[in-house]
Amino acid sequence: MVAVPLFSAKINRDIEHFGATHGVKVLDLLPAFEKAYKDGSDPLYHEIEDRHWNAAGHRVAVSKLIEYLNNNRLIPQAHKE
Fold this sequence. Notes:
By secondary structure, the protein is mostly helical. It has one domain: SGNH hydrolase (Rossmann fold), CATH 3.40.50.1110. Helix content is 49%, strand content 5%. It is built from 3 helices and 2 strands. It has a two-stranded parallel sheet with strand order 1-2. The longest helix has 17 residues. The protein starts with a strand and ends in a 10-residue tail after the last helix.
């Protein structure tokens, strides 16, 4: 389960609590989005009310997701012959 950056960190904490209670791994993307914003990233969202990610936002999310999957060995590694 991925806790997405929304308007409040409380939502993400609630999702993390649910995951911990039910044995579901959770990746909170809020810190990555906050860091990208503070580092002067291009805008991460489309300029519409529902705050969908744009291409820059998807790059942040994919980068953290790949890192998480690799760090938790959730992606099979290719075997060298």
